[in-house]
Amino acid sequence: MKELSGKTAVVTGAASGLGLAFSEAFAALGMNVVMTDVEAGPLAVEAERIGQTASVLSMTVDVSKADQIRAMHAATIERFGAAHVLCNNAGVGGGGDVADTSIEMWEWVLGVDLWGVIYGCKTFLPGMLAQGEGHIINTASICGQLAFGGNAPYNVAKFGVVALSETIAEETAGTGVNVSCLCPGFVATRIAESRRNLPEGLAAIQPEMTEEEEAIRAAVLEAFATRKPPAEVAELVVNAIANDHFWIFTDDAFQPRMAERAEAMQVGTSRPLIGRMADTFFE
Ligand SMILES: NC(=O)c1ccc[n+]([C@@H]2O[C@H](COP(=O)([O-])OP(=O)(O)OC[C@H]3O[C@@H](n4cnc5c(N)ncnc54)[C@H](O)[C@@H]3O)[C@@H](O)[C@H]2O)c1
């Protein structure tokens, strides 16, 4: 889609990090922006700020609830008449090893990171196909390409988002609707603070963090703050929409491991070990 000015973009997880940067970039291009997030307070502040220079509709939406995604679609059509760009971006990190992660944690992470994207695609695709124009950006992760240890629900959700995006690319070829799969490495956002988004019931049953876990968490937060700024990823996203790129990677450091994985699959040998997620922060 070459001309974005005057068109409408819908962004989930728009109150922070990548979603906020996408919203800013779309607004700067003269697009109408529908900013949605589960965190009402920060969303109101950011939507008010961006709304000073662009047409913004803001709405509290929990992407893990299909009816709330449908309401987001209905509100978009009512206010702006059409949706041209959809960023299924809201996401959370949570859980660890398969043997230790509670079923409730699996359900929360898959609910937001995978079902949220499925609901978004299912709800917005028919309108885009009918109008013969649209672009969906699904935020996966490098964890949708490489299954590091200690990150089980997140890896499964993000591999699912990659599969969903590749499937849509096959099904929409030649229709005027395109899809991109964003696989960030490390970007300076609040993703490592996803516990703030835990639903009440799940927050109540979380075990207290040990001193060691607190120390690792603090080091991870520090490492995240020094990573790529979200605005740089927003530029890649805008470029992918303009030039119809499917893959969006932010971080070359992971490519050799992806190549090793592909090579091992080609020759059908054992899988090369790639280590635990937590260790990759400090490489
Ligand atoms: N930052 C990174 O290094 C990185 C790497 C790979 C993938 N990602 C992905 O990028 C996406 C954006 O995350 P971010 O890094 O900007 O983190 P972030 O925490 O800064 O932003 C995530 C946003 O999603 C919102 N959110 C959480 N649960 C929600 C729900 N149920 N419904 C609606 N909104 C919800 C949060 O309130 C927050 O505003 C996520 O899908 C994440 O998995 C991030």
Q: Could you name the key traits of this structure?
A:
alpha/beta; binds nicotinamide-adenine-dinucleotide; 10 helices; globular
Largest sheet: 7 strands, parallel
Please give the CATH class.
Alpha Beta
The name of the CATH topology is Rossmann fold
Radius of gyration: 18 Å
Given the C-alpha coordinates, what overall shape results? globular
Total DSSP helices: 10
User: What fraction of the residues are assigned to beta strands by DSSP?
Assistant: 5-15%
Order of helices and strands: EHEHEHEHEHEHHHEHH
Number of strands: 7
In which order are the strands of the major sheet placed?
Answer: 3-2-1-4-5-6-7
Give the helix/strand class. Answer: alpha/beta
**Quaternary organization:** single chain
The set of bound ligands, ions and cofactors reads: nicotinamide-adenine-dinucleotide
Describe this structure in words.
This protein is α/β, with parallel strands linked by helices. The chain has one domain (8-280): NAD(P)-binding Rossmann-like Domain (Rossmann fold), CATH 3.40.50.720. The chain has helices at residues 17-28, 40-50, 66-80, 103-131, 152-172, 200-204, 211-225, 230-243, 255-267, 277-280, and strands spanning 8-12, 32-37, 56-60, 85-88, 134-139, 177-183, 247-249. A 7-stranded parallel sheet has the order 3-2-1-4-5-6-7, sandwiched between helices. Helix 1 (17-28) packs across helix 8, helix 3 packs parallel to helix 4 and helix 4 (103-131) packs parallel to helix 5. It is globular and about 50 Å long. The model has no long low-confidence stretch (mean pLDDT 95). The structure holds nicotinamide-adenine-dinucleotide.
